[in-house]
Amino acid sequence: MRFTAFHRLAAAAAVALGLGQTALAGPPEGVVSAEFLPGWQTPEGTYMAGLHLRMAPGWKTYWRAPGDAGIPPRFDWAGSGNMASVRVHWPRPKVFQSNGLRTIGYEHDVVLPIELTPREPGQPMELHGRVEIGVCHDICMPMELRLSGLLPGEGGSDAIRAALAQRPLSAREARVGHVNCQVEPISDGVRLTAEIEVGALGPNEAVVFELPDPSIWVSEAAMTRDGGRIVAQSDLVPVDGAPFALDRSGVRITVLGTDRAVDIRGCTGR
């Protein structure tokens, strides 16, 4: 797999609310098209919308933790009006293996539910967003989408609800038992070993560790299963290449299966 990580396509997609699908211009033509989906106001006063990405055959894009060979998505909402916070809800991704490398993401198409919290509830929101995603086939490259428009709007609810239904289960929903983490220093960081009591999620299970600090490199987790218990291990290497104190409560663990996934927040020491 050949990467062009420092090459950025010159064209960006301007996706206007209510205008439907807007295709990305520029080479390679037709790789990705994007559509913004207005949704609904939630009982909590937030607003649920969605970003629908369609990939050309053979192309894929990446989950929030894309693996060593992937390009992590980035979101910038600077300049938005009446916007206090934005939260992306990630549907369950797929694990890909290519040339001995593991990546995690989506193929064909995906709807990313976006939950927006207004500064002033009940007032319109002016959305300005810049979304950087990676797309990959034989080569991988970053692409940029730009979103702008006013909320609330109408349409897209069914697709957004379907995507929300595809989110990983919480630890409580999946009846996860004890989640214990052991941390030991290594020459350039620390090694994290997690023991997780969770039922089988189908064939080809994988474990992904995430940390609050994105600058810390996290290796692909090696895992084994023994009945209702998983043991997974990753090396965590900070930019200074030295052991560090790890806050176990901030560790996010996702167990991915073919048909289900579980999102676990935090773990305890033995």
From TrEMBL:
Protein name: Disulfide bond corrector protein DsbC
Signal peptide: 1-25
InterPro entries: DsbDN
Annotated keywords: Signal
Residue ranges annotated for the Thiol:disulfide interchange protein DsbD N-terminal domain, each copy included: 35-148
